[in-house]
Amino acid sequence: MRSDLVRALSECKAAGRNSVAKIFAHQDGLWVQSDNELLVYSWIVPCSVDGDALPMCVSPGAVLAFLGQCKDDQVDGTITESAVSVKCGSSSAKFVASVNDIYQYDKPSTTIRIKDLAIFDGLHAASRSATRNNQCVLRLVDGKAITTDGHRLAVVDIEDPDIDMTIPVHLAEKGAARVRAKADIAYGQVGSMCCLVSRGETWMFPLPESAFPPCDDLLKLVDSKKDTGIEVGCIALRDAIKSALSCSDGGGICITAGECRLVVSSDSSIGSAMAETSCGPGEVEFSVQAKYILDAISGNDTVTIASDSPLDTIVITGGCRADLIAPLQS
Question: Does residue 211 sit within a domain?
């Protein structure tokens, strides 16, 4: 039980410098909860609890410091009107507590289990800007996982065409980490909050007030470009981009392909650089932010790059993912 409580309080402490751990009595144990900087965390610590105990707020750092000195895994506690008393082995401590501004968040009544890690493959394209909070999400709809930051858009084909859900990027990143660690995860919704549930732990984050940007035309563009463009190996392209970046001012590069030869170049006040690699037949020419290309080719062995003109949207497809990138206006 000590290890469970340490884990829950550590997550609460990580929520922020002035974070507070809220402790509620629950039929299955202690419900430990924090809400700091919009992100709500809660976890039920299995133990025997007086069902009439008051919900209290304590400093997670202080309790963690005490538990860190204990070796016994059995922890006993008492909640009173002004304090939380904790006993572990031969050691005991009493922590000042308060009942100010306590709200007990509900659990989601229904959840959707996520097992396919590919759902999170497009998170690189999601916005992290607070001024674009309707783009700081992973949108699951019509068998696709979609992300955008206004400059690029990533589309991933997913297994379940019936999922219709919006997941804040903070919870999507945490969910991806959990799936990589072989943990079961599920997403749900409580009011205006999206919930991530995994191994008894729950995280909540508010959904954006405005809708995800419409992207039907861009999805049609992806479908029209899937079998066009030039094919190139990702390792060779990545090496060429990194070589050309040595003289880039601001991360911009130019990519030109023709006669089965792809050239990546940069030209600025610093100097000029060029690198080349082989590619499939076809022609493209455009300028773009190198980071966007590097993100788009990550996780693939080969990709197909399509662009009709230097000012047209660049479409990069590989595996079950497609990336649409706005070119630099030269």
Answer: no
| pTM exceeds cut of 0.90 | no
| Alpha-carbon 125 to chain mean position | 11
- Beta-carbon contacts of 268 under 8 Å, excluding residues fewer than 6 positions away, are 247, 248, 249, 250
Instruction: For residue range 133-143, list pLDDT tens digits in order.
Output: 899 999 999 99
Residues 248 and 290 in one domain: yes
- Which tokens belong to 157? 């084909």
76 and 10 co-located in one domain: yes
Q: How many CB atoms lie within 10 A of CB 40?
A: 20
Structure tokens belonging to residue 22: 């809220």
pLDDT, tens digit (0-9, with 9 covering 90-100), for 163-216: 899 999 999 999 999 999 999 999 999 888 899 988 878 888 889 988 898 889
Residues 117 and 176 sit within 8 Å (Cβ to Cβ) = yes
Is the separation of the CB atoms in 139 and 149 below 8 Å? Answer: no
Task: Say yes or no: 190 and 276 in one domain.
Answer: no
Which of the listed residues 96, 127, 151 is the one where a domain comes to its end?
A: 96
Q: Which of 156, 148, 154 shows the shortest CA–CA distance to 128?
A: 148
Q: State how many domains the chain has.
A: 3
Residues 227 and 191 in one domain: no
Residues contacting 222, CB < 8 A, separation 6+? 155, 315, 317, 322, 324
Which residues in 49-90 belong to E strands, given as ranges? 56-58, 75-79, 83-88
